[in-house]
Amino acid sequence: MSSKDWIEKDYYAALGVEKSASSDEIKKAYRKLARESHPDHNPGDTGAEERFKTVSEAYAVLGDEKKRREYDEMRSLFGSGAFRRNARGTGQPGGVPFDVSDLFGGGAGGGDTRFGGGGFTDLFSSIFSGGGGGAARPRGPARGRDVETEVALDFEDAVRGVTLPLTLRAPGVCDTCHGNGAKPGTQPVACPVCHGAGVTTRNQGSFSFSEPCRNCQGVGTIVEEKCPECHGTGGVTKTRTLNVRFPAGVADGQRIRLAGRGEPGERGGAAGDLFVQVKVRPDELFGRTGDDLTLNVPITYAEAVLGTDLRVPTLDGTVTLRVPPGTPSGRVLRARGKGVVRKDGRAGDLLVTLDVVVPAKVSDEARAALETFAEQTPPAAREHLDARVRRFS
Ligand SMILES: [Zn+2]
Ligand SMILES: [Zn+2]
Asked: For residue 142, what are the contacts with CB-CB under 8 A and spacing of at least 6?
């Protein structure tokens, strides 16, 4: 007997009993149906023979406490939000033919991540270990999902390190209906089209196709009165907040992995990891290249020519830099150790780029002084350009 049989066949329907039937009711129903359809009482009736087989097969499972539990567990899995989400998650549109065995192949485009990437194969092999219905092993632990999120840090927080509360949103099972989508006090009922199997079989020539039931979208059950919390989907968006420590020197574009801070595992499985993509907001003064901070400082032509001492800000104070006489525009001065300080004590530098600015307006006195200066100054070195200019004159 294959696990596929268990999904496709409704043994309760075969015996004409409720899912909640007691073992006595099941036994009674089986005896009655077995008697009626027994080949000895219906010689030559192949229909009765089929019915007898079906009834016997159903009783072999439902008449055995252990197997019945396994069967119920598997069908509730397919009849619950778990399968509903899986059917959507793999992008299977309702009407596309697919075989249930795809679900057991593991190659069917990504297993349900609820089961930690091992997908259904692992899950079912653990349920059905023992071949012909031996001892049921409990489902193994499943690792929780990894979670990706993005956070924007202020420039200084990124340089110094910061602890921030992160609010994460993730799909979770609705607490009101425990994921079955039914209004509290009601239960989902078996889909009348597929009788709870979730799949319908269509014959075409010598092929037969199994496809998800269109009436219930492959869930096997339908919800008559929807849960008000999740509107019948069985899922809600859950938020949780956790404090995340960003180390000093974290950079824009960096991806931080926080082991075990993803979604919790199931049945004692390890939690997934949290991956935080860091964005760093620009600072109005400082830029950053690795562990070095950068700063542009305007100076006058006179300061560049004569030299000066410049007092410039750092992130946590000031530093005085010597501009030597005759410094060209664009020269970079380095203040050692005034950049990003790492946890291990190593620090980058502050790189100061000097920018000689030209005043748009000067006073009459300044203009007169400048004209005197110009007379005393040799012309700029443009001879290499003059030759080319002469070609056009
Ligand atoms: Zn159905
Ligand atoms: Zn709900």
From this structure: 114, 115, 116, 118, 265, 266, 267, 269
Q: How many angstroms is it from 346 CA to the middle of ligand 1?
A: 65
Whether residue 176 contacts residue 184, with contact meaning beta carbons closer than 8 Å, is answered with yes
Q: How far is the CA of 181 from the centre of ligand 2 (A)?
A: 5
Ligand nearest, relative to CA of residue 196: 1
Report the Cα 332 to chain-centroid distance in Å: 44
Q: How far is the CA of 51 from the centre of ligand 1 (A)?
A: 22
CA of 188 to the centre of ligand 2 (A): 12
Question: What pLDDT digit, counting tens, does each position of 174-222 carry?
Answer: 888 888 888 999 988 899 998 888 888 877 777 777 888 888 888 888 8
Question: Whose atoms come closest to the Cα of 175: which ligand?
Answer: 2
CA atoms of 69 and 67, how far apart (whole Å): 5
pTM for this predicted structure: 0.50
User: What CA–CA distance (Å, rounded) separates 68 from 133?
Assistant: 10
